Amino acid sequence: MPTWFQFSLSLVFASSLFLMTGCSDAGPTRYRVSGTVTHDGKPVPKGAIYFEPASTSEMVAPSGFAKIIEGKFTTEASRGTGPGSYLVRIRGGDGVATPPDMNDPAGSETPFDIGKPIFAEYTTTVELPPEDSELSLEVPSDVDR
């Protein structure tokens, strides 16, 4: 007949095993996406690019994000994407920091200020492979501010 000590030891062992298997799952594999973004044939001075899964019906796909600086971007390993179809949203600015709003005690400057927008947010769709990839994206010149 098991003693209280044996039962407690078994419970601790089972709990540890459960926690270790739960912690080993690092989530879906992410891949780096890098490339260039141009508008009117010129590199976007400063901006942001977002990768959102176009459909999550088949699998859980991670979203991605990168800053655009002088027309170039690279997602960090922790902000990369998975394979599949992605909705890409691009914001671009002139890169000149905007002054803080004097009526707002916290100021209106964001941690990554893109400056004055040079086009309205542009959205397109891309298909990404199950590996690191490079994209060359052109924001059409007819996209209004």
TrEMBL record:
Region (Disordered): 80-145
Signal peptide: 1-26
Record carries keyword Signal: yes
Superkingdom assignment: Bacteria
Name of protein: Carboxypeptidase regulatory-like domain-containing protein
Residue ranges with Low complexity bias: 136-145
Species name: Kolteria novifilia
Keywords per UniProt: Signal
